[in-house]
């Protein structure tokens, strides 16, 4: 019978693992990064359109939609550490990560399609459970793909600066893929579903069925292309530890020992709150562009198109900030600027400083402001993800285990739960502000729109500046990371 290895034996096994290369090739980075198109596409739907679709098009109470999302999040919280731990210890001829990536492709695509094609004539209660079941399915299988896939980053390199470069590819394609779906929706899909009865295709139920079909195909392709594109790298990746007899108690004890550090908990809490704010913003963004600012579908498409430029700027800026300022200091500075700028146009409208709706000036103000601020937020998110990657070596030095999957399971959980919970908050803000289910553009009163902005601004600012306070407790800088890498290398060459 196999037993748990001692710390010394684990280090001996770690010495047998392949050593991460300093700089993976451009094509390896490209394949690794392209896989996040699947997650970005999922986000484009569930973050930006799901609440609006079910409340304003299908006609459900937004609080009921938010509750369905919340229930799915509770189930989701269970899958993340399980998948992360499983992929760290999985044995196969295709390594630790790739079997999960391949297995997730079909379930993710199928469940995503059906969440946009709810049966007609069902009651609110029946639709509520329809959303719950499909949301749980989507989130579970996205975990099965995203956690092992994203965990490849610290395996590809242990270099402090190179990790920010690799993760820039990941975040660029995540935003590019998700934003492409939004642009396609506003520029092509919604205009194609305009009818005599429905003059704005954004409120046509059939448009979302087609949107779901396109999204499901894109997600399937992204997962398979990324898995195949990194498949050749499997022999260079680290191998799992020897098989051991494990109980549930031992598994969770090992998980706790791996992630238990002040820096991890600071980054975990800060990122969870940051993604909650991101989910809140995403859940209401099209409410603000459609109702608050009164933009046309074409203008909304142009603003959404600006996020492509944001992804380029944010992705290029993150490695520069890493080299010049370091990750923590860069995150604090970039984050502070981004978090103030995000709700600023809405605040200025509330105090009647900006031009009136319908003017060319207000469109350009929102377009330019959103593009630049989104770029800074992307840069911040890349820095935070790279900070998480640097904790892998800290955990290895403490426990002897190499647990990329566990750390990136935490990252996946933070992102999914935070953004999902942010959408839940968005649903309740809509209810408090009095935004009626089924209301089309122009049907909300000025009082309702003012109340929507007045509630949103302080809530999102409170969330974001809590992030800045908490992340200041993160302690791993360049010097500490490089010292840990040297220490681990010395352990591997030292006689037992």
Could you give a short account of the major beta sheet? none
- Are there runs of 5+ residues with pLDDT below 50, and where? 1-21
What is the assembly state of the chains in this entry? single chain
Broad structural category: mainly alpha
Brief synopsis:
With 496 residues, the protein is mostly helical.
Detailed description of the structure:
- It is a single chain.
- The protein is mostly helical and 496 residues long.
- 77% of the residues lie in helices and 0% in strands.
- It contains 18 helices and no strands.
- Helix 2 crosses helix 8, helix 3 (36-57) packs across helix 11 (262-292) and helix 4 packs antiparallel against helix 16.
- The longest helix is centred in the last third of the chain and has 40 residues, at 360-399.
- The two termini are 24 Å apart.
- 53% of the residues are buried.
Set out the fold topology.
Blueprint: H1 7-15, H2 26-34, H3 36-57, H4 62-88, H5 98-115, H6 124-150, H7 152-156, H8 160-192, H9 205-231, H10 248-259, H11 262-292, H12 297-325, H13 327-341, H14 344-350, H15 360-399, H16 404-433, H17 446-471, H18 478-493
Key descriptive features of the protein:
496 residues; mainly alpha; 18 helices; 0% strand; disordered N terminus
